[in-house]
User: Fold Multidrug ABC transporter ATP-binding protein from Pseudooceanicola atlanticus.
Amino acid sequence: MAPVLQIKNLQKTYDGGFEALKGVDLEIEEGEILALLGPNGAGKTTLISTVCGITVPTGGTALVAGHDIITEYRQARSAIGLVPQEINLEPFETVWNATRLTRGLFGKRRDDKLLEQILRRLSLWDKKDSQIKELSGGMKRRVLIAKALSHEPRVLFLDEPTAGVDVELRKDMWEIVADLKTQGVTIILTTHYIEEAEAIADRIGVINGGQLLLVEEKNALMARMGKKQLTIDLRDPLQSIPAGLKSDALELSEDGTQLVYSYDTNSERTGITTLLAALSREGIVLSDISTRQSSLEEIFVDLVKESAA
Assistant:
């Protein structure tokens, strides 16, 4: 089965010559969750806007559910649900009418039962007759999500969906994402909450300067690029690292009570056994040992720094 989203050499250059997208290639399978990470101005929103038909590309192709976003834009757009960063809703419309109208705009038959299910899941059912202007910012964000889901899209784009919203909505949002995945909906999200991407994404994409630096399965990425740290608690503090232990991978804490050893998880030899033997030779007594894996955020920061260098 062909990927539900196929992007090849997608480019976007503005009139002033600014290249917002520089030949992006990306394939996403049906039912997959892809988290797209990148700093402000990296090209995340431009990529989403281009695939969704808001921005016209200057080169390359993109297919959504097998439909070209330019030559078959109606079919492509009907397969897409979009939750944008900006809240742009008709203030005097009710929640119910706004959601039902969006479904109708995509040519879908009336299905009040489905819309009720969506609104209930988003804790909007008791607000269905309220005008948008009466809602809080978090509730308006929920309405955007309801509208995006109203026409049963196969691909759902979430552009910073939980930015500036309460913890409860954020939790609800990720539960909804997990549910949609089980129904075969493909989800592409951008987020600044990297811990959320780490928790729910199948694959991670990192974009910077309009270029896709990598797209990789989350666990494989963390195994390949993640480092582990061995923290050694000392019974007696050290003033400095003894000469026999000097290593770029070994650091002493400011208070002298801990030694921190960094090592590559993929190396055949971690060097831990050699280190422990050296500590014993130096007469250094340990009180405890613990390890930690580098986080996705640390990997992301390193990748962006490398691309900017």
